[in-house]
Amino acid sequence: MKKISVVGAGTMGRGIAYTAALSGFGVQIQDIDEGNLQQAKTSIEELLQKSVDKGFIAVDVAEVAKQQIGYESDLQQAVREADVVIEAVLEEIPLKVYIFQNLDKYCSEHTVLATNTSTLSPTEIGAATNRPDKVIAMHFFNPVHKMKLIELIKGLDTSEDTVQIVQDLGEKMNKETVEVNEFPGFVTSRMNCLIGNEAMNMYMEGVASAKDIDKALKLGLNHPMGPLELADLVGLDSRFRNMNYLYETLGEKYRPCPLLIKYVKAGKLGRKSGEGFYKY
Asked: For residues 56 and 48, what is the distance between their CA atoms, to the nearest angstrom?
């Protein structure tokens, strides 16, 4: 594995591309929106500079990583030489299926196709291709360059060779991996959505302030980040989509908190919009 393509230049796509480039891979990051690509380039180069300024990486390492990343709006061009493609777009099955159908046409026969998803089915996505054995979910966590875990979720037809390839990829990116058999929400999202939803219900019921709910879980349960500030970081619209999917597939205990629904309708999406459970 030498070349990785990342589809989607949003927060997760940028983070994956940054981490892969620092790990020595040639990276193509693709997005149909030229503005998103430019924002990704600016964001990645700023993060490289911050890492140099803080002494985390050397100047020459940052410069090499910068040169390792290409930015491309044409999907076919971006993935034609890829050994692994990691898709990182919105959590919407029709969109992901459409992308994977095109990846199947454009990529070499050996290319592994991975979806960065926190809840959706790699089996369903893989079934839209002629290579379901080479389709897998790689659930990265935000911010990618700091978070150590990648959940690897096998679809029904995912081969052991594919699992080994992405395990090796994770190791080269200095990540720990866990292998999960596909089930809605996998491991982390099932737990995280429950905790976050209950925190939202407590805040709605006036049990405590958002700040004190987060503080209680950080200091009392040793969570590195409170559930409400984490939801703001992820994006309340993204959390709402995940909760809806889990509600539909796993039942009543995942019913989205009414306050979450209200915030999304009001455009209060967390950090990305400047306001969610906190103001930014």
From this structure: 9
| pTM of the complete model | 0.86
11: annotated binding-site residue? yes
Res 81: pLDDT: 96
Q: How many CB atoms lie within 10 A of CB 85?
A: 25
Which residue from 125, 118, 195 is spatially nearest to 150, judged by alpha carbons? Answer: 118
Q: Omega before 184 cis (within 30°)?
A: no
Ligand-binding site membership of 10 (annotated): yes
β-strand pairing of 3-7 with 84-87? parallel
- The pair phi, psi for residue 66, each rounded to 5°, is -60, -40
Range of the domain at 260: 188-273
Cβ proximity of 269 and 261 under 8 Å: no
Within a domain: 129: yes
Is 12 annotated in a binding site? The answer is: yes
CATH number of the domain that residue 66 is part of: 3.40.50.720
Residue 209 assigned to a binding site: no
Kindly state whether residues 158 and 192 are assigned to the same domain. no
User: Same structural domain for residues 175 and 217?
Assistant: no
- Residues 90-131 have pLDDT tens digits of 989 999 999 999 999 999 999 999 999 988 899 999 999 999
